[in-house]
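User: Can you predict the 3D structure for this chain?
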Amino acid sequence: MSSLRVNIVNRELSWLSFNERVLQEATDPSVPLVERIRFLGIYSNNMDEFYRVRVANVRRMALLKKQKITGFSGNAQDLYEEIRKVVLKQQKKFEEAFVEISEEFKKNNIHFVNENNLDEKQKNELTEYFQEELRHVIFPVILDKKNSLPKLRDYAIYLAVKIEDAKNKVRYALIQVPPDVSRFKQLKNENSTYVILIDDIIRLNLKDIFGILKPKKIAAFTFKFTRDAELDLDDDITLPFIEKIEKSLKERKKGTPVRFVFDEKMPEDLFTYLLNALNLKKGINAIPGGRYHNNKDFISFPNFSNPNFIYPSQPPCIHPDLENQEGIINTILTKDILLHFPYQKFDYVIDLLREAAIDPKVKSIKINIYRVAKKSDIMNALLAAVFNGKEVTVVFELQARFDEENNLYWSNRLKEFGAKVIYGVPNLKVHSKLLQIQRIKDGKEQFITYIGTGNFNEKTARIYSDLAYLTSKVEISNEVNRVFRILENNLERTLFRNLLVSPFNARRKLTSLIDQEIKFAKLGKQAEIKIKINNLTDLKLIEKLYEASQAGVKIEMIIRGICCLKPGVKSLSENISVISIVDRYLEHARFMIFKNDGNPIYILTSADYMERNLDNRIEVGVMIKEPEIQNELSTIFDFQWRGSVKARLISPDLKNRYRKRNLPPFHAQLEIYRKYSQK
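Assistant: Here is the predicted structure, written as structure tokens:
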């Protein structure tokens, strides 16, 4: 394994390369203009979470003087500095992209303005807007030795204000940009639209806000910072798990700052004051940038009612087997169904639960929840089932990072109305996506079983590409029922023949399937593996894939995010090719196809090839044996593998080169949608 560590890419640097692919979408002129600026928002939001979780972890390793870093030649401190170097380069690309997008908006008579280039009419309009809408939600804080820096929120945007009075006395102050007000304000005249950020409306009114101090000179500079978001669950056995989660969520808000992003024009004295107050180091934690931060707000940038500025409408397609039938349950009892979101309607899942809630033959519903929408029709359908006397069991994963509070809310609400709520398995996150409906018909038990790759979340189902397999097959349903029994009774262990269940048999089964392809290759038979996942970091599986490549197994992988494997390296991985697709929809589906000497094995799963997914989580994959669904999975993979518009080649140098665009170009996501719409 030690020699392997040289032949992999560092996880953090690979993730930064993925986020650069997101940034590439913002610079792609073929992407509609407002969507380009929204990709800047997605990039910024991704970077926030990266610092809160991964960089915070690197910082902890540096404090512990941990020397060996997988896939990196230096120690943790060196990696910390390398991350900063890459982020600064990307920050420059980000700012260049914003300038380029701004110029394109100008060509469409849409102009970004700030407080310094407004005409008198605009100033008056914005002053009136400030007095009516903003003044009452702004609470400035004077910073001095008596008033130490208040507890700051790492999701917030702050203006650090420097005030000089007539006697040249300098004061500092702090203003939080109101979080519940749209960040963007539009001004219009006959021919043009002007966009100004709330930050600049506040700047325009600074002298009014601080009028009591009679400022001679006053200026405000944006900054934001990011805290370590790790939940530290203490070992106090007297506290129930749910109380530990609640306690840790409160502590997260006080986590150690790991990044300070600031306006590089901020005066040195103000900059030094803030760093000292936040206990940050000047060189490592501080990331200089432009005038504006918290650019994740660009995700909700207005579209100006111009259809040319956004992606063409792609309403979800119907599934021909689920329309105009006598109920979804009856259909699934007669044949297996594969749903592909967002190309097809997620409403079918909600309708399935609604139908189960009123079906007199339904006895119980079991589901495991990782992330749900804040306003969730899935949860409301489960409540309806409770009201109709069904036994409803919901397994909640309370450690779904950044969704803990939402999951706590829904778990408490369901418990309040009589559902059975289970908080996962000790020391194992429950990341599987399972739903099972139990019916009794003519004294016999029936199961409707759902195994998916994505969350039961109707909001993300509109933008995440995921797969869901629905079946009434007895052999699969019985095994899923056993998984639920494990979740309800942690001591129960069982064998699985049709499922790959982490941490019980998934790693062993995947290794066995790769070994089988190696055996076929050595016998001179065609040996192939096709894999579509989000992340590949597991060292043991990487080593096994290298072994397969060296034996002559042809391996094609579509990996959206982190890829620690180095493809195309002579005598190591020359039979491995990897692409990444970043496009309109977030690629989130996970499945794989093993050629198996002409009798292919198809597996749909919730798990990535990561140590945590294989060893430290409950994950469920299913072997798909229905020929029609096998063909559909093959088509999805083939379409994406042919993709030449949004596919980047993953290479050891992390350059994110686009695959050569064949003629005519093949836009995989668009072609998949066309396939479903024609169907």
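The longest strand covers residues 215-227. Residues 500-678 form a domain with the Endonuclease; Chain A fold (CATH 3.30.870.10).
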